[in-house]
Write a structure and sequence with these properties.
The complex is a heterodimer of chains A (about 325) and B (about 350). With about 325 residues, chain A is an all-alpha fold. Helices cover about 75% and strands about 0% of the residues of chain A. Chain B has 13 helices and 14 strands. Chain B is elongated, with a radius of gyration of 23 Å. Residues about 1-20 of chain B have low confidence and may be disordered. Classes of the chains: A mainly alpha (about 325), B alpha/beta (about 350).
């Protein structure tokens, strides 16, 4: 997982790291760096132990079902030892995608407004509730979703969406309230502060000279933002988005309370679904037998894999976008 | 500063001594009986200040696991242990403590009482009866203002003893359910939404007009939910109440090890979706002091403890069953020696 500071530094130094001078080596330095190295490897070791343990517990279930069948089958029937993870993978990806689509424009817009346009007094007033949002426990989001958002979605939001956008398969079916859409909206609110606060930090690293240069060339404020600020910060904003995505993928409590918990695959966002973390949390405490426990561990492994893959993709994206217009702009 | 340290050290030492005199018994398991158990443990501690019982409500599955591994002094489970589980933990005995029930709650503002036969109930949860004015429901409820709206089925999403009891009942009354979703703590539901916990199911049913779901009787009572009347094994319509739940254990045939499902039990008064909850202890207790205290506590629980059950919405064990459990407790030995052999 990329850390916030890493993203910010990456944005601050788009060229390359300053070359380190050949340092004089002494003993305390050695010990210190050795100790730090050890700590660094400890983090990796913990991750490795987690994976190894998940493989150990989940192995029997995977070999019982077959890895490909486990990922591709869509039936989850514990009483008959049939385990297919596809509905959970689908639900995890769909809810996270909905969350990103909703949260990204708002967060980036908010960050741009606060760094580029808003007077300082407004900035502090607005950024306080944003950081407050980040501190709310996810179960509170879940309860709010269940008691406020879901009834609102049932009437009037979902019928309205069905009436206006019903030609898309995404917005069809009975308005139950609980489902992908509800989970996606709750997730969007949860990742909004993450993306916004990092995007603000990234935008603050954009050198003032860039803006001034654009303005001096006769650009309007909007053009200055579009041409000089955003391209410079693009990599960092991408990183912020990926951090938000990481949170959305792993969110458990809030999702399970509003997604409807039904292991099915439907194209409509109104339908109930299920997500990887939700099913693990729901069934683990009372898992019956080693095979069921194993299948849940295998789901955890799958979630781990999805997160790692998306992180790799994010890194590639960041690298690619850093090569592109960033250079030109900088 | 020094004196402060010395004083606090002394205080710690004293506290340590006081704790050491107490006998600590550890247990873990089912969440459903947790309210009554914690009441029992604190009341018992008032009577016997030297015995302190710790209980972690981690779920029935965890309770069985921990007693099998002997990491706790007693386990607790809503569902009796299976043959496989018994093989891994030879010498465990089941002690029924109280009874609970699963009730059907629904949300139809215009309908104040609803009757559901076993077949109709199974068909609703199978997704075969989809509308509230289906002829099957209308036939059982003449005169009720049943709306022409879809039935929204709500079930538990988390693995739970409640689901196990409910699906066990459905599998008994409906061959189609038995060959379809089957019975278990989590099953592959043909229709419906999943709510997490009793509160999740209740929340969804309350919000969804036309919703139907199942929750524990205690939970439904405390939250004043409208419950459906069910037809029992003898063909009588019964409401869920503590009396009708106790009645389910009165006529049911109960084997010596109590490992039995009493859903769909015979008896005029018997509520059909009732169940025991158990404490799991080893027949031969390895630790003299703990074993002694535990057996005495169990004796107290099935006698004096039963009087506290009703106030917390648990059904007490019927008297004939208490007699049977007495015999079981008398057969428990501590290092090969019976403790309660002469107790009456």
């Amino acid at each position: 997982m990329q850390t916030a500071s890493e993203i910010v530094t990456a944005a601050r130094e788009p060229e390359r790291a300053p070359e380190s001078a050949p340092a004089r080596v002494n003993v305390p330095d050695r010990v210190w760096s050795g100790g730090l190295l050890l700590l660094g490897f400890a983090v990796l070791a913990v991750a490795a132990v987690i994976v190894a343990e998940l493989v150990r517990i989940g192995g029997p279930a995977i070999s019982h079902t077959g890895l490909i069948a486990f990922v591709r089958n869509s039936t989850w029937d514990v009483t008959r030892d049939v385990f297919g993870a596809l509905p959970f993978i689908y639900g995890t990806l769909v809810t996270s995608a909905v969350a990103l689509v909703l949260a990204l424009p708002i967060s980036v817009g908010l960050a741009l407004f606060l760094t580029e346009m808003a007077p300082p007094s407004v900035r502090s007033i607005v950024s306080f509730p944003i950081s407050l949002l980040a501190g709310i426990p996810s179960v509170v989001y879940g309860l709010w979703g269940l008691f406020v958002l879901v009834p609102l979605l049932r009437r009037p939001v979902e019928p309205l969406l069905a009436k206006t956008l019903g030609f898309l398969p995404l917005f069809r079916g009975p308005p139950i309230g609980l489902g992908y859409l509800a989970a996606g909206i709750v997730l969007a609110i949860m990742i909004l502060p993450t993306i916004t606060s990092i995007a603000i930090e990234v935008l603050q690293t954009v050198p003032g000279t860039l803006r001034e240069a654009a303005l001096a060339l006769g650009a309007t404020r909007w053009e200055a933002i579009r041409v000089s600020v955003v391209p410079y910060a693009r990599a960092g904003i991408m990183g912020a988005t990926m951090l938000g995505l990481g949170r959305a993928l792993g969110e458990t409590m809030a999702v399970t309370m509003v997604i409807g918990n039904s292991p099915t695959i439907r194209s409509s966002l109104f339908s109930p679904g299920y997500s990887l973390p939700a099913v693990i949390a729901n069934e683990f405490a009372e898992a019956s037998g080693d095979l069921h426990t194993g299948a849940l561990a295998a789901l955890a492994l799958l979630l781990f894999a999805v997160t790692v893959l998306l992180n790799i993709a994010a890194r590639l994206l960041v690298r690619m976008s850093r090569r592109g217009p960033t250079r030109v702009a900088a | 500063m020094k004196t402060l340290l010395a004083v606090s050290g002394l205080a710690l030492g004293l506290a340590g001594a006081a704790v050491a005199e107490k006998l600590l018994i550890n247990g873990a398991g089912a969440t459903f009986p947790f309210p009554i158990y914690s009441k029992w443990f604190s009341e018992y501690n008032k009577l016997h200040a030297d015995v302190q019982i710790n209980y972690q409500s981690i779920g029935s599955g965890g309770g069985i696991k921990q007693i099998t591994e002997r990491t706790v002094d007693f386990g607790a489970s809503d569902a009796p242990m299976t043959e496989d589980e018994m093989k891994k933990a030879p010498g465990v005995v089941h002690i029924p403590t109280v009874m609970g029930a699963v009730v059907i709650v629904y949300n139809l503002p215009a309908v104040t009482s609803l009757r559901l036969s076993p077949e109709t109930l199974a068909n609703i949860f199978l997704g075969k009866v989809q509308n509230w004015n289906d002829p099957a429901i209308v036939k059982e409820n003449p005169g009720a203002k049943l709306p022409d709206s879809a039935i929204a089925v709500v079930h538990r999403s988390d693995g739970s003893g409640t689901t196990a009891v409910f699906t066990d009942y459905l599998a008994k009354v409906s061959p189609e359910w038995k060959s379809g979703p089957g019975a278990g703590k989590s099953v592959n539901w043909p229709v419906g939404l999943g709510g997490k916990g009793n509160e999740g199911v209740t929340g969804t049913v309350k919000q969804t007009e036309g919703g139907i779901g199942y929750v524990e009787l205690a939970y439904a009572n405390q939250n004043k939910l409208t419950m459906a009347e069910l037809k029992n094994h003898d063909g009588k319509w019964v409401n869920a109440s503590l009396d009708t739940v106790s009645a389910a254990a009165a006529k049911a045939e109960i084997p010596a090890d109590y490992r039995v499902s009493i859903t769909d039990a015979p008896g005029n008064e018997a509520y059909p979706i009732s169940a025991f909850t158990y404490l799991l202890v080893y027949k031969d207790q390895p630790d003299a002091a703990k074993g002694n205290a535990l057996v005495h506590f169990l004796w107290w629980a099935i006698h004096d403890g039963q009087k506290m059950a009703q106030a917390l919405d648990y059904a007490p064990l019927p008297a004939p069953l208490v007699k049977k459990v007495e015999a079981t407790l008398q057969s428990i030995t501590v290092k090969g020696r019976a403790v309660l052999a002469n107790r009456k």
